[in-house]
TrEMBL record:
Source species taxonomy: Archaea, Candidatus Marsarchaeota, Candidatus Marsarchaeota group 2
InterPro entries found in the cross-reference section: Tscrpt_reg_PadR_N, WH-like_DNA-bd_sf, WH_DNA-bd_sf
Stretches assigned to the Transcription regulator PadR N-terminal domain: 19-84
Organism in which the protein naturally occurs: Candidatus Marsarchaeota G2 archaeon ECH_B_SAG-G16
Taxonomy, superkingdom: Archaea
Protein name: Transcription regulator PadR N-terminal domain-containing protein
Length: 144
């Protein structure tokens, strides 16, 4: 029943709804959107950076949202129209698929880096305890 309601397994279709619905209420960073989706799902689901950031990029290209200078995303008129069309009894499905190719893994890594950049911009002290680990990962990646 829960899987049918949330639509687990269908790539990002439901997440699109949650992102637009969140932005309907206020401009937000990717990290804030992830927090809000987790809150709205009562902690049952938290989208990964690998889902959020590629979707934000896609929505920007479609002209549904725009990224402001402060790093927050906001709806365009086209986005407001789309979110209003979603507000009906049918919930679009969610996605929980893992990447299945090198391209998919690289997209996922890129999305996680975007998430860390968001945190660095909005909560600058939050990454300090992880600086050595981040450097270690960067070194490992540079050796590939």
């Amino acid at each position: 029943m829960l899987a049918a309601l949330w639509g687990f397994g269908r790539r990002r279709r439901g997440l699109r709804f949650w992102v637009l619905y969140t932005l309907k209420h206020s401009p937000s960073t990717g990290a804030e959107i992830m927090d809000e989706v987790e809150r709205m799902s009562f902690g049952l689901w938290r989208p990964s950076p690998g889902s959020i950031y590629p979707l934000l990029e896609q929505l920007s290209k479609e002209g549904v949202i725009r990224k402001r200078d402060d790093g927050k995303y906001e709806l365009t008129e086209k986005g407001r129209e789309e979110v209003e069309s979603f507000l009906n009894p049918v919930f679009p499905p969610f996605s929980l698929q893992a990447p299945r190719s090198v391209d998919g893994v690289l997209d996922e890594i890129s999305a996680y880096v975007s998430y860390l950049e968001d945190l660095a911009r909005t909560k600058s002290d939050s990454l300090k305890p992880y600086s050595s680990r981040i450097k270690e990962l960067a070194e490992r990646l540079s050796k590939l």
